[in-house]
Structure formats: C-alpha cells, structure tokens
Design a protein that fits this description.
The chain has 262 residues and is of the alpha+beta class. The protein contains 5 helices and 14 strands. The strands form 3 sheets. The protein has a 6-stranded mixed beta sheet with strand order 3-4-2-1-14-13. A 6-stranded mixed beta sheet has the order 5-6-7-8-12-9. Strands 10-11 form a two-stranded antiparallel ribbon.
Length: 262
C-alpha cells in the first residue's frame, strides 16, 4: 500500500512565510498534501501563487482582506473540493476547505480564536466559538463520515490537556485553555475521532506547535500544542506515524504531520 504524507501548517501569512524559506521547506518535506491555515490571502491575489510539484492549489479566502483563510496544495487532484461548511454565519472567514479523495475526506480548518477577555473577564468570542462553531464543525465532519472516513487538521485553537501547554495553571481561564474549549475537544474524541499525535505519543510532554512571539517563548519552549490531525476510527489501522515539526521556523506555529497507508 502506498504511504501518504500529510502536513498542516498555520503559516500566519503566506506571503510572510514565503520570505522565510517556505519553498525550501516544501521541497525538503514533499508532502502529498499541504494544508495551510491563516494564509491572509484574498481572492484577487490567489492567481499570483504557484509552487513546484503542486499543480493543484485550492483556496478559501475570508471576505475581510488580510484575515484568516485556508488553502490546500496537492500533488494529485482531489475528486472534489468544497469551501466552508454550508452555514453562512461561519463561512465568511475562509476557515474550512474539504478535499475528497478516493478513500477519505481531508479537511483543513482554522478554528476561531476565542480572543481576549471582555468586561466580564471571559474571552470575547468564547460563546460563538464553543456553542456554535465547535458544534457545527463537528456535525459537519460527522456528516462527511457517513460517506467516507475523515481526516481533519489545522489550528484548532485549543490545548486539550495540561500536558499540551507549558503553563496550564496560569492559563486556565485564557482563550485556548478554557473549560468550555477543552470540553469541545472532548466532544471530538467522544464522537470517535482520534488525536493522532496522542495516539502515538500518549504521555510525551513538552511538544508544542505554537509559541508566543513575546519573551523568547520559542527559544525557551514555553508553548502550546494547538495544531492537530484527527482521524476517523476506520483509519486507525492505516496510521503510520504523527509528528510535530518543531524545528521548522517561519511562523509562530510549526507544521504538524501525519503518515498513513491507504
């Protein structure tokens, strides 16, 4: 069976990361599909991009310029590609792209950040994120799963367990580590999806995928694991390995990867 290599990366601006070695990374890693989040590219700019070895490029851009956005770079053309999840209130920010392949669906997602605290000392977008987005996105993936197994990946903007961030106690009520967001990830697992990194490394600590730009956090490895590959139960026998490519720079996130045979 052929092995498939998938990589996901929140690039925090595609034009910025291209100036920091992105194409060298792509040539070195050569994934079959590269899933990108936070491209910050608008529809009028997508024709300006081409990447050697990746003739099939797909984009979902936010209506607001310079904001959010997702993309797929594919060696082989998917059977179909869909933008968004089919719910208008969620689909203006370019946060989801779904590619259908012969054996599975691949979804790249940039989950909304719950943002800074409001006057009630709660993240401003927490209710939207947890009561609306998390519920609807999970339902979308479960609906896809009725047809084929699903892999979804990207910046989920939540550290699930205390092992997934360097300072859990001081971040307990902060965006990305609230009880509500963590419960949203619990729901993903309860619906049968597997956090593939934890599948291979259940007890491995100090492996993170995002670091603040402040106070030398990356150099000190004061980070969070908020970028994931999650897979349907039917795909578990096909999983080979998952990894966090924390040596790769260019963004405040690093890439994460999944290898499987199909």
């Amino acid at each position: 069976m052929p092995e498939i290599k998938l990589i996901s990366w929140n690039v925090n601006g595609l034009r910025a990361v291209i100036k920091k070695g992105f194409e060298g990374f792509l040539a070195a890693e050569q994934p079959d599909v590269l899933c990108l989040q936070e491209t910050k590219i608008s529809d009028d700019l997508v024709a300006n991009f081409a990447f050697e070895g990746y003739p099939h490029l797909y984009w979902n851009c936010a209506e607001k310029k310079g904001y959010s956005g997702t993309a797929l770079l594919c060696r082989d053309a998917p059977l179909s590609v869909k933008k968004g999840i089919g719910i208008q209130k969620h689909d203006t920010e370019g946060r989801v792209l779904t590619a259908e392949f012969s054996d599975y669906f691949l979804v790249t997602v940039y989950t909304p950040n719950s943002q800074n605290h409001d006057e009630n000392k709660r993240p401003r977008r927490l209710d939207y994120r947890t009561l609306e987005w998390d519920v609807d996105f999970l339902n979308y993936c479960k609906k896809l799963e009725e047809g084929k197994p699903v892999i979804f990946c990207g910046d989920l903007n939540v550290a699930h367990k205390e092992i997934d961030l360097a300072n859990p106690k001081t971040n307990r009520r902060n965006a990305g580590f609230t009880d509500e967001e963590r419960a949203g990830f619990d729901a993903i697992l309860q619906e049968g999806f597997t956090d593939t990194f934890r599948y291979f490394y259940p007890d491995t600590a100090e492996r993170y995928s995002w670091w603040s730009y402040r106070a030398g956090a990356r150099k000190r490895n004061i980070g969070w694991r908020i970028d994931y590959f999650c897979a349907s139960p039917k795909l578990l026998p096909n999983l080979k390995t998952a990894d966090i490519l924390d040596q790769v720079e260019g963004s405040d996130h690093c890439p994460v990867s999944l290898h499987l045979t199909l």
